[in-house]
């Protein structure tokens, strides 16, 4: 579904991502793990074309998407839940959700809203409330719900567990798992190695803008050196 070759990205001076090759097959959850500043979020921004400077090729569903404008990316089926959620605090929960479906026709949007409320009971309960009053975990659910309103075939999640209490992380990941079971293909950025290993089909390890490992969770678990050297403090 997604095929990236020799991707190089920079914000101006010097590359931050140095020639990454990565693929995600339909129906997979693929995780990218790696320490702070490794370039994980930058790769997602590169796929969404939020960063102009780029070398390499990004193919999605058989098409080169390097030239698709960032505001058109959701129209081809890619939804990006950015790091830090970026919901609109002053708007209601429902208004935030509606923003996610902005490019879809009005008559299907109501149906989509109901589907999201079916998945996320808490959002239904709070639909008229100011989004900024939701807890961190609820805001993460809202960000995912908003991304799903675009009816994507491919969902990119940037550190959905960040800053959440363990119980909330569990709820968020159970939902991610459910969305995956229903057929969604997912590219997940996660610093919590334990979560990545529990939910992903395959894992890439990113170190200083380079992929240094790719394998299944079971294969990765057997890689003592990588588990220790690259993920030391977070070893599970
Ligand atoms: N807008 C920006 N302008 C300039 N440099 C940036 C910008 N955003 C990120 N960088 C730099 O690019 C590198 C990779 O950042 P990125 O956000 O991709 O890391 P990350 O792996 O997602 O880290 P984290 O786990 O902390 O989210 C870092 O050195 C960062 O300082
Ligand atoms: Mg990041």
Summarize the structure.
This protein has 9 helices and 10 strands.
Characterize the structure shown.
The chain is of the alpha/beta class. Helix content is 35%, strand content 25%. The chain contains nine helices and ten strands. Strands 6-7-8-3-9-10 form a six-stranded mixed beta sheet, with helices on both faces. Residues 40-41, 83, 158 line the site of magnesium ion.
Oligomeric state of the chains present here: single chain
Small-molecule components bound: adenosine-5'-triphosphate, magnesium ion
Q: Sheet bearing the most strands, described?
A: 6 strands, mixed
| Dominant shape | globular
- The chain-level mean pLDDT equals 90
Query: What structural class results from the helix and strand content?
Result: alpha/beta
Tell me the strand percentage band: 25-35%
Distance between the termini: 30 Å
Order of helices and strands: EEEHEEEHHHHEHEHEEHH
Please give the number of β-strands: 10
